[in-house]
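Curious: why this fold?
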Amino acid sequence: MAGNMIARLAAAAALLVAAAVTVTGSDARRYAGGGKCVGTRKYEVTLKLNWSSRTHPRSYPAGGNFSPPTVAAHASRYQMWAPGSFASTGIQTVAETGNPAPLRKELEMYQKAGHVSSWAGTDAPTPTGVETVKLRVTANAATGAVYVSGATMLFPSPDWFTGFYNIPVCRHGRWVPKAWGRLTFWDSGTDSGRTHTAEDVVTKPPTTIFSLNNRGFPAFGTAVGYYTIRAV
């Protein structure tokens, strides 16, 4: 009698497990089918840069401006930069010298590998610290390139830059019409200079990228502008 009861309970449990697996599998397939964006989408990235003696009266260096900005649409297999990560050669060079060439060469390499769908950048630095820069990139759902990142140096500085990282433009199976955020101070972790015009002091060993925005000098808690990523 007890043996029959145990057998019946075991059979019932097996049916419940099978039903749960069936529902889970169905939901997974439905999510996969409806949870991904399709095709490509163009985005205009606007950097509204606002760094001057008016916005940062205690730290703005005379003639301060921004290096040629670079933005990219990429998959999760590529990371331009992120807090807590070590700066690549490309980001280090941007942050320390303003030269975007190594970063753009890096992007071309990852583009050939299928991890970057497109990138764009200006040819020259901004004339002043108060400028608006517009660039366009194309996200591609087929390759997973549904994230947008960008970077530009605050010049002069030891290794300080601003930008944004891994901003998703596909959510819940739909292309995002618009995303925006603040542009703040970041340290690439490769130079230990403490002022905008300090001599080069190589950080050995290098540290990971970290925020300067909530510290005193140079940010004093004030952003250097805003970015907008808008579908076009």
Notes: Confidence is low (pLDDT under 50) at residues 1-34. The chain is about 25% helix and 30% strand. Helices lie at 2-34, 89-97, 101-112.
